[in-house]
Design brief:
By secondary structure, the chain is an alpha/beta fold. Helices cover about 15% and strands about 25% of the residues. It folds into 2 domains: about 20-155, OB fold (Dihydrolipoamide Acetyltransferase, E2P); about 185-420, 3-Layer(aba) Sandwich (Alkaline Phosphatase, subunit A). The longest helix is centred in the C-terminal third of the chain and has 21 residues, at about 340-360.
């Protein structure tokens, strides 16, 4: 994960990375090894599972030969993307193909690697009773003929150039002649790339066949970073506030936010979170394990936890701005005994219609977006963003946007001061 890139642009996933000690090569399924339990990226498969620290849920890991249940293996794979989950647990992604497609690899090495290089991993294959799979690596080396990486300066990872035309924060225009925005509902989904959402009618029939035709699809929408927290903070405070690469909770942050600015202007803000333990909760988790505090950015700011309320469905009316966070069983993060994509789509099909109907008579704007992409998405961190409302012309837009653009659109709609990374841009 990028630690020092400017927060004003989408984060490139392909980075140079010097490995100074422990590292993880993640290839699909879930990786989990002892104390090393970083969030493992979801692979490019509909049935991929994810590790949330408590357990691996869903179909975690592709089929591995039974003979390799605890045996020594040698795997050759291509470095797909480079990331860091905190200073103590660097990670980069390798695509190995059959039989694992993607698998977590932990070990130690001194060789720097680049995206696109072939590497050879030797170690012990492990598979847990819950379906987690990983390789305890004894050696990781470049495969024959793979290019030798250029030297990388010590210190923070150096990103490759961002894609041409990287989005610059600017409010997203709405057509003239339409009603003004009086309410906004921002619905946050999780960890699914644009290419996994748009066109995937088999797993997401409501999104593709109902929701997108009702509004505007932004085809060049990008998240900013990995994992979740920096993206949620960008949407709430206009800055990652130094959280790149982490989902730390608890943590105390300071500064103006969407909630504080709305409140100061005499407007209403509610952070709705499914399975939040109670109104005003600052908890980082809940007993069911499906609520995650790092998806509720308002709890990080002293005096703002009171914005939070549990969400059990459309309450009959909406505040000026609602930040709606489904739990991990409904936001496409975890499968929770089913298909994570289908579960999320079904949840939206149940929750959004009454909001959309209410918005039609209250000049409300519904925004559905994803915090970040899955790691197999190209270009990096490409996500879907969909807007529905009486002021939105139906169709699609190729305008490049990111989370800061969404925040700037909301603050401009209510005449608020632009926040941090979303400020200084001419509307």
């Amino acid at each position: 994960m990028m630690q020092t890139l400017s927060a004003r642009f989408p984060r490139a996933l392909f980075l140079f990375l010097v490995l100074l000690g422990s590292f993880a090569i993640s290839l699909t399924g879930c990786g989990s090894k002892g104390a090393l339990t970083p969030p493992v990226p979801e692979g490019g498969r509909p049935n991929a599972g994810v590790t949330r620290g408590r357990q691996c849920v869903g179909n975690c890991g592709t089929s591995a030969p039974s003979a390799l249940a605890s045996g020594v293996v040698t795997e050759t794979g291509t470095v797909f993307a480079l990331n860091i989950y905190g200073a103590d647990t660097p990670m980069f992604v390798v695509h190995s193909g059959s039989p694992y497609e993607i698998i977590g690899v932990y070990g130690s090495a001194t060789e720097p690697f680049l995206a696109g290089q072939e590497v050879v991993v030797t170690g012990t294959y492990q598979r847990s009773v819950t379906g987690n799979q990983w390789i305890d690596a004894s050696t990781v080396t470049l495969a024959n003929g793979s290019p030798v990486p250029s030297p990388v300066p010590s210190g923070n990872p150096t990103p490759l150039p961002t894609p041409t035309g990287a989005p610059t924060p600017t409010p997203i225009p709405t057509p003239t002649g339409f009603s003004a925005i009086e309410h906004v509902e921002l619905v946050m989904m999780e960890n699914t790339g644009y290419d996994k959402v748009v066109g995937n009618s088999s797993s997401m029939p409501y999104i593709n066949n109902v929701l997108i035709p009702q509004g505007k699809l932004f085809t060049n929408s990008y998240a900013l970073d990995h994992p979740s927290l920096p993206n949620y903070l960008a949407l709430y405070a206009g800055s990652e506030l130094g959280t790149s690469g982490t989902d730390t909770c608890p943590l105390s942050l300071s500064g103006a936010t969407l909630g504080s600015e709305l409140s100061a202007a005499g407007l209403t803000f509610i952070g709705y979170a499914e399975d939040m333990p109670g109104a005003g909760s600052t908890a980082c988790t809940a007993a069911d394990g499906a609520y995650q505090g790092h998806h509720s950015p308002w709890i990080y700011f002293p005096g703002q936890a009171g914005f939070g309320q549990p969400y059990d469905g459309f309450p009959g009316s909406m505040p000026d701005v609602a930040f709606i966070v489904p739990n991990d069983c409904h936001n496409m993060h975890d499968s929770c005994g089913g298909n994570n994509w289908r579960n999320g789509d079904t949840y939206l099909s149940q929750q959004l219609p009454p909001i959309i109907a209410w918005n039609a008579t209250h000049n409300g704007l519904l925004i559905v977006t994803w915090d970040e992409s899955s790691y197999s998405t190209l270009p990096p961190n490409h996500i879907a963003t969909i807007m529905v409302g009486p002021m939105v012309a139906r169709g699609s837009s190729s305008q490049q946007i990111n989370h800061y653009d969404i925040l700037r659109t909301i603050t401009d709609a209510f005449g608020l001061t632009p926040l941090n990374g979303a400020s200084g841009i001419t509307p």
